[in-house]
Specification:
With 321 residues, the chain is an alpha/beta fold. It has a single domain, classed as TIM Barrel. Helix 4 links the parallel strand 3 and strand 4. Helix 2 packs parallel to helix 3. The N terminus is likely disordered.
């Protein structure tokens, strides 16, 4: 019996435009410390939630810190779940900063309101950590639809705490993340950023540096919602039809190495959620890879990659073109 051929629509689009997807220079080590979170957002491609137990252990954290000290990546991007819940979060931050890396914290803002994290904003400011904070809209109703009741109000208080320490200035960077509702692509990033800045400043006195517009990946809870509403095929068609070849040079798989909570490595956080682990004859872990070897390993793609190349493109730092 002949095995069915599984179509990779993303690779088809690359071939159609004669694009070869090669790696550039390794700029960012993105570390996912685990799935536990104090929230369970509908758009979360990680399926993070308070009941998740998969978290990085001390041995893995030690090995990752050793790698950072040896290779000194330009950026260390710490994510989760709520990454601050990890018992190794603060050590990863301090050791990365000591190695000379710029550190980013993917912060959901409500963690700043949780018992036991009262000093978190001070810790972040003391170590000049860039905060990349999820705020999918500047209105309470839309945030509640994605992230639950009361989240918007907690998020606003969290932003005000950060502003009070100087976040949103040149010294302490505060960037916000926007995700669209439903089976849609994000609107123009510059226009949305202007709206966010005007409304958050006027209504709450909040300032921030940049807005990152990120296209929702057809994975996990978001994909489930699309299936339930019979919109998954239409959303995939939208991603295919919106393919933008101009995004290719800025795709994050060309400059980012993604690490899971067990130390396993991936081309991106989305591949990580699909268990598309890097391999080179065997499954690879961070301690098997250095920046030179990483450049020689072929990038693994799938249909979900279309979300990164649709419209203006999408990455962990917003639109691409």
């Amino acid at each position: 019996m002949v095995a069915p051929v599984i179509m990779n629509l993303f690779d088809e689009k690359l071939a159609e435009h004669s694009i070869r997807l090669d790696r550039g220079r390794l700029e960012t080590l993105q570390i996912n410390v685990g799935r536990k979170c104090n929230q369970a957002c509908r758009h979360c491609h990680v399926d993070a939630a308070p009941w998740r137990t998969e978290m990085m252990d001390a041995t893995t954290a030690d090995k990752i810190i050793e790698w950072i000290k040896e290779h000194r990546p330009k950026n260390v991007d710490i994510t989760g779940g709520a990454p601050e819940i990890s018992e190794h979060f603060r050590r990863l931050v301090t050791e990365s900063r000591s190695a000379g890396s710029h550190v980013m914290d993917r912060n959901n803002l409500t963690i700043l309101e949780e018992p036991g994290y009262e000093d978190l904003h001070h810790f972040l400011a003391d170590h000049e950590v860039e905060v990349i904070a999820s705020l999918p809209c500047y209105t309470s109703d839309n945030v509640s639809k994605q992230r639950g009741q009361g989240v918007f109000e907690k998020s606003i208080r969290g932003l005000q705490k950060l502003n009070n320490l100087g976040y949103g200035s040149e010294k302490l960077t505060l960037n916000l993340v926007y995700n669209p509702l439903g089976a849609n692509l994000p609107g123009p990033q510059a226009e949305l950023e202007q709206d966010y800045k005007e409304i958050l400043k006027k209504e709450f006195g909040i300032i921030f540096n940049q807005l990152f517009c990120i296209t929702n990946q057809p994975l996990a809870r978001f994909a489930e919602d699309l299936r339930k509403s019979d919109q998954l095929n239409a959303y995939m068609d939208l991603l295919v039809d919106s393919f933008n070849p101009e995004t290719k040079d800025s795709l994050m798989c060309r400059s980012t190495l993604s690490v899971g909570y067990m130390g396993e490595v991936y081309d991106c956080d989305f591949n990580q959620m699909l268990n598309m682990q890097m391999r080179n004859g065997k499954l690879l872990f961070l301690w098997d890879v250095n920046p030179d070897r990483w450049k020689k390993i072929q990038i693994t793609t799938g249909n979900h990659c279309l979300a990164c190349t649709a419209g203006a493109g999408s990455s962990c730092t917003g639109t691409l073109s």
